[in-house]
Design a protein that fits this description.
By secondary structure, this protein is of the alpha+beta class. The chain has helices at 2-20, 30-40, 42-62, 93-110, 138-204, 210-245, 271-276, 279-300, 338-406, 412-447; strands at residues 26-28, 68-77, 83-86, 115-118, 121-134, 252-254, 305-315, 324-332. The strands form 3 sheets. The protein has a 4-stranded antiparallel beta sheet, with no helix packed on it. The chain has a two-stranded parallel sheet with strand order 1-6. A two-stranded antiparallel sheet has the order 3-4. The radius of gyration is 44 Å and the shape is elongated.
């Protein structure tokens, strides 16, 4: 019995680390989250596929520079000969009669037939190589157009990366903001607990009314409800961030905090300069270039084209056949396409004008967007400075009110109001600092591409 108990105890001791083992936490900075989001975002993966697709298109267009080689093989066996030639097929009556006479006299003895058949079965083999010499510039412009496609796909990917960075930072700092507000509630609850302890003695001594305890309890309940809202908000935002970066939200611990901000003037850049360097502007330029190349390719279809080539063939259709080979050149000159092409060129001109109008319109809107982003950043900075001043005032106000309350000069409601003002000031400073970070990321994305 003793031996059995010993074995059980040893098993429990050896198993205890397994029961006490906890999941590893995942410490994440803002940069960690951005890197994970860029790696796991589905739309970015699809954009990369678009880049690969554009590169494949360019390789396909490049192949037009190289010779084209084709080979053909044909074997056939017809029910009846495809070609039959005899005396009856001769149109000249005198010649036909002469041949009949000769055939009647000598043909049978010589083993000749009145009719011969050809091409009933056989094999044909052919190999050909062609090389375009000139195709109206369509091959060259087609390669340029394919290269623009790669640039456009890469630019769109950069735009998507900026969007992912902004969304990731927004979610991250929103979580930090709520965590800061929870810390503010912790401080407020400690103050309320201290008041609750002091209030019990004050009521017994007749220095406070029993209704003050009711007011204090209402304030504590309000704080508890606010805490529930904040923790629920943190959970939902963590789930959203985890889904965005490909992580388990229950393991996530955000390590970055709201540090000191730098005055935004160091980031300022004139809107016109910033817009000229934007990915969107580059994409608009590419669309104009692409339209110009499409027009050149349409024009190239009406120009002469020249190709050279060679072929080799062999067949068994006729008797005593020999392999054969030849070289050739083909010059093709379109004659009747000019009228139709003129309308096609007109369509390209209209598309180019449309693209130019779009670029001018979007450039003006992007300049307005950049200025708006700068104004938002300046307002966020001003909001921070005002919130810092308000926080200092609310802290001083709470200290004075607390001293007056301890001296019996003010009511408990004044202390509770001062605490509420302090909470609001801290929350306002937290919100303004988070807003500043998000606006700074937005502005820098618009001016540092």
């Amino acid at each position: 019995m003793m031996k059995t108990k010993t074995i059980i105890i040893l098993l429990l001791i050896s198993a205890s680390p397994l029961f006490g083992q906890q999941k590893d936490t995942l410490n994440l900075s803002v940069q960690n989250c951005i890197e994970m989001a860029l790696e796991n975002n589905i739309e970015l993966k699809n954009n990369q596929l678009e880049i690969d697709k554009a590169r494949a298109t360019k390789n396909e267009a490049r192949a037009e520079y190289f010779p084209t080689v084709t080979a053909q093989a044909l074997a056939f066996d017809a029910l009846n000969p495809m070609l039959t030639v005899g005396i009856e097929d001769i149109d000249n009556a005198q010649l036909r009669q002469l041949l009949y006479t000769l055939y009647a006299e000598y043909g049978a003895n010589m083993g000749l037939d009145k009719e011969y058949s050809f091409v009933q079965n056989g094999v044909m083999l052919n190999a050909m190589v062609t090389e375009p010499i000139y195709a109206g510039g369509r091959i060259r412009n087609g390669n340029k157009l394919a290269k623009l496609g790669i640039e456009a796909a890469e630019t769109q990917t950069k735009m998507k990366e900026d969007e992912v960075r902004l969304q990731t930072e927004t979610l991250y700092w929103q979580i930090v903001s709520l965590q800061e507000k929870v810390a503010t509630l912790d401080q407020l609850d400690r103050l309320l607990d201290t008041l609750n302890k002091d209030l019990g003695g004050a009521i017994e001594a007749g220095l406070a009314m029993p209704t003050d305890q009711y007011k204090l309890r209402v304030k504590q309940n309000e704080s508890q409800l606010n805490r529930k809202k904040l923790t629920d908000g943190i959970t939902l935002l963590k789930m959203a961030l985890a889904q965005y970066i490909g992580a388990d939200w229950q393991d996530m611990v955000l390590t970055d905090t709201l540090g000191l901000e730098v005055q935004p003037t160091i980031w300022f850049q004139p809107a016109s300069e910033a817009v000229a360097n934007r990915n969107e502007s580059h994409l608009l330029d590419l669309s104009l270039k692409a339209e110009g190349l499409k027009k050149k390719m349409t024009l190239g279809a009406t120009l002469p084209s020249l190709l050279v080539g060679g072929s080799a063939n062999y067949h068994t259709i006729l008797e005593n056949t020999k392999p054969n080979a030849m070289v050739f050149a083909v010059l093709q000159i379109p004659i009747t396409d000019w009228h139709k092409t003129a309308f096609k060129l007109k369509k390209h001109d209209l598309e180019a004008e449309k693209a130019e109008n779009t670029r001018r319109d979007l450039t003006e809107k992007m300049e307005m967007q950049t200025n708006q982003a700068w104004f938002n950043l300046e307002q966020s900075w001003l909001r921070i400075t005002m919130a810092q001043t308000a926080l200092k005032d609310s802290e001083a106000n709470l200290k004075i009110t607390q001293d007056y309350y301890d001296a019996g000069l003010v009511a408990l409601s004044d202390v509770l109001e001062a605490q509420t003002l302090l909470k609001q000031s801290r929350d306002e400073l937290t919100d303004s600092r988070v807003e500043y970070r998000i606006n700074l990321v937005t502005y820098r994305q618009l001016t540092e591409q």
